[in-house]
Amino acid sequence: MTQTQSKENRTTFDAAQIKVIAFDLDGTLIDTSQAMLDVNHEVFSEAIDNGDAKKQPTKEEIYSTFGMIGDEAWNTLASEIPDGRSDHYKERHNELLRDKMDTQSYVLPGVPELLKSLADRYDLATASNCGEAYLARVLAKDGLKELITYPFCAGSVDAEQKSDVLRELLRQSGLDTSQVLMVGDRKSDVDAAKEAGIPVVGVRSEFGDADELQTADVVIDKIGDLKKLFEKQ
Question: Which NCBIfam families does the annotation name (predicted)?
Fold first, then answer.
């Protein structure tokens, strides 16, 4: 039995049993951070000009919302915008983001090649807190749609939290918890995997604090290192 071990927390999982690898999106497979910064800047500039907001959200405040589910991210950033105007700016935000994602790929370098190599041996899944339309736009680029067996997100399974997405993946795949691996870059990914009872690989990224991944089974420096975890089998 081949096992993979983290130097940081000494937790192991049996890599030889894994049949499905589930990926978080933002920070793990894609990077829409600049698009998010640009869109929020434009929307809040309009709100400030109209007297509906006092200031721009900071980069740190925007990054802190990555991984939030449903409208939580928008409600966090727009908490000071009057209720009667918030929906207008939220729709403007979504419209601008849709336009950007329809015209540009945000997939991280090397990800299409990595997924293609993994798809030869494993079924691949997504496990994101995003909505269906957002996921569809991500998968429409770089041939990703054809590589993902289980395109799941909070919106597609009506999840209240990311662990619900993973539980639905377990249900539809019919696999045991030891046979599904979660890969993500934030504490929310690690927590969701732990709640669903599956092993998790943490990927370091600029969006999380240094200690966010300390309870992951394995921590890697970049997504391309994932393949190395399975090469010795």
Answer: HAD-SF-IA-v1
